Amino acid sequence: MPRQVDHDERRHELAAAAARVIARSGVAGATMREVAAEAGWTTGALTHHFHDKRALLRFTLEASLEGRWARRQRRRAMTPDEALRSTLVDALPTDDASLLHWTVTVAFCAQASGDPELAVTQRDAYREFRHEVTSLVTSCGRAHGEGATREAERLIALLDGVALQALFDPATWPAERQIAVIDDALRR
Question: Are 126 and 85 in contact (CB under 8 A)?
Answer without folding.
Answer: no
